[in-house]
Amino acid sequence: MKERILAEAEQLFWKYGVRSVTMEDIARRLGISKKTIYQHFSDKQEILQQVISGKITDSETKADCLTVHATNPVEEILMVLDMMRKNSGQVSPNFLIDIQRHYPDAFALYKQHKENYIMRSILENIQKGIDQGLYRSDINPPILARLRAEQIEWAFNNDFFPTNKYDMLEVQRELMHHFVRGILTEKGFAVYNQYLNQFKHEVERVQPNA
Amino acid sequence: MKERILAEAEQLFWKYGVRSVTMEDIARRLGISKKTIYQHFSDKQEILQQVISGKITDSETKADCLTVHATNPVEEILMVLDMMRKNSGQVSPNFLIDIQRHYPDAFALYKQHKENYIMRSILENIQKGIDQGLYRSDINPPILARLRAEQIEWAFNNDFFPTNKYDMLEVQRELMHHFVRGILTEKGFAVYNQYLNQFKHEVERVQPNA
Question: Does the structure's ipTM exceed the value 0.95?
Fold first, then answer.
C-alpha cells in the first residue's frame, strides 16, 4: 500500500504541483480512506520527501548506468541530457516552482544531491574529457562544474525563464549544448558533431511515425 | 563638496564594504564635520545610491565607447571583460556581498541596469555575431543572453565561489571565455584565437617591466 500511495502522489505532484494536491485527492484516486494514508505517512510533507528521495536515487542509478555505457565523455553528457528530457518531460513547472518556494525540506534533498552527486559527476566528466583530449586543458574544472550544476536549476527558474515564454526542456537543451561547446577541443568538436548528426537522424527517423 | 564626499565614500566602500564604513569615517577622511555631510545627504544609504548610480552611468558610457571601437563582436566581448577587470580590480568582495545582502535599494539599481542595459547589449552582441557568421546561427539568443547576464552576478556569489577559495576576476574570466567559446562558429574561433594570442603577447610584453 505504501508504494501505491507514493506512486499515486508522485503522479499527482508531477501533474499539478504540490500545493494544490491534498491528502483527500490522493485517497480518492486510490479508492482508499485518508485514514489509510495516515497509517503510512504523518503528512503530505513526508510523502513528498519520500517521493523526492526515491526520484533522486532512481536518477543516480540511471546516470551511473549511462556513465558505464558511454564510449566517451561527450557522449556521456549528451546521454544525460537525453535522460533529463525523458525524466522531466511529464513534470509540470508548478511542481518545481512549488518545491523551490514552499517546501524547503524537499528542496534541501535536491541541494544535497546537487552538492554531492551532480558536482562529483560533472567534475569526473570534465576530468575524463581533458584526459582524452576532448575538452580543453586550459579550463578551470571546479568553476565550470559549478556553472553546469547551477544551470540545471536555472532552467526551472521562473524569474529567468517564465514558463509562459520558455519551454523548460528547450532551456535545458540550449544551456547544456552551450556548456559542452564551451569546453570542447577541436578533436572534441569532431566527436560532438558526429553525435549531433546521429541524433538528428534518429529524430528524423522517429518523426514520420510519431 | 558633494562630489568630494561621493568620491571619498566610493573609495571607502570599495575597500571595506558598506556596512563597516560610518558617516564619521567619511567625515574624518575629508577633514570635515559630519554636519557638512548631512547638508548634502540624508544618510549613508543616499550616498550609496548616488555612488552606485554614478558607477553604472560610467560603466555604460565606457562600454558604449568600446562597442563603437571594436572591429567585431568577438573583440567587443573580450574588451568588455578587460574593462570589467580594470574596473572591479580594486573592489573588495565585501562591497558586493554587502550590497546583495543588506542594501536592497542599491542592488535594485544594479538589477535595473542588468535587465535593461546589460541584457540589451548582450543581445545586440549576439545578433551582430550571428549576422557576421562569427556566432552559430542555431543558438537561442534570449536564453544565452540571460545566461551571460546572470553569470556576471554569479562570480560575486559567495556561496558558489567563496572568496577564500576563488579569485573573483578569475571566475569572471573563466565564465566569460567559456560563454564566448560556446557560441563561436569555426570562423569565430579563428578570430577568437587570434585575439587570445594578441592578448597573451601583450601580457608577456607587460610582465617583465611590471
Answer: no
